[in-house]
Amino acid sequence: MENKTVVVGMSGGVDSSVAAMLLKKQGYNVIGVTMQIWQDSAAPHEGGCCGITAVDDARRVANQLGIPYYVMNFKEEFQKEVIDYFTEEYLAGRTPNPCIACNRYVKWEALLKRSVEIGADFIATGHYARIERLDNGRLAIRNSVTAAKDQTYALYNLTQEQLEKTLFPVGEYTKEEIRAMAEEAGLMVAHKPDSQDICFVIDEDYSGFIEKEAPGRVPPPGNFVDKDGKILGKHKGITHYTIGQRRGLEIAAGHRVFVTDIRPETNEVVIGENEEIFTTEVVCDNVNMMSMAELKPGECVRVKAKIRYNHGGEYGSIEALDDGKVICRFDKPVRAATPGQAMVFYDGEYVLGGGTIVGR
Q: What is the value of pTM for the model shown?
């Protein structure tokens, strides 16, 4: 694409590095950018997507590729849209997905805005996904060629305007092919491990992180109760728990029990049997439709829906409700639909849309 400029979000990992390399080979004017998003109070994982080594590795790769490279400060946006959101959701007894918020409001909204301001035509990342224009004229995200590394779930919230200016160069390849290309090109990150955890929380200590972000506001220990309100024991605080959790409950029930509900208004964590966390109906709000326009109230569409990132998906029908929410009625029960997580609808290989789970 001669004379077209693309800003590539470079995390210092192999995927975004190869994305930049592929786009340069395709003729784009490529600019590498690492988003400085970590806060002074929240040192990130050293090897994470926004970790301490990200800038050094990304700069070295940019030098290898012969492209200009910059570090852009997005601390304010990340604090507001990701860290504050993450903290408030946990305080309210929900389990958020900060990567989805980061994608929508930082990587795309903030980075895209600043990229356009400096004259770029597109932004690109190393996500394993594809973008296609459908017969109805709308743009939709399509699964990557490899199901083992599909990242479309975390991208459902992107708008049509954002998709118009987005490129996903690695979506046509498998992870093994990406690493092989990096190795052949001599990129120093060819065998760098993938980041796995939430980048701004050390050692998965969510409660400790929330205590630092909201001192004095973290709910105190309270009661474990059964569905009828009978007290079963003491919990450490609702920020320690999520729906479906079994480990770390420290309850002598004599058999396996699970978190079935979190009640922030009474500071209770409800404990029950495994079968109690299965449901055939899940409701979501903050709905973003992608491959089709908004659903009209009462309109039903067949979908395959995922209720968490690593959920294989289950078939069902979605229906728009009068209040703007969408309900999915699954053909088979799904386990541990968790308020705060995303429910993403698929039409075959394409993202139809999605929303934030609010109840069962």
A: 0.92
- For residue 135, give every residue at least 6 positions away whose Cβ sits within 8 Å of its Cβ, in sequence order, or none: none
Q: In this predicted structure, which of 134-143, 203-212, 311-320 has the lowest mean pLDDT?
A: 203-212
Distances (CA, A) of 148 to 52, 144, 151: 27, 9, 9
- In the set 49, 199, 284, 328, the catalytic residue is 199
- Select which of 50, 99, 102, 284 is catalytic: 102
* pLDDT tens for each residue of 331-358: 999 999 999 999 999 999 999 999 999 9
pLDDT tens digits, 99-147: 999 999 999 999 999 999 999 999 999 999 999 999 999 999 999 987 6
Strands laid side by side in the 222-225 sheet: 231-235, 222-225, 268-272, 258-263
Beta strands 5-9 and 139-143: pairing type?
unpaired
284 is an active site residue: no
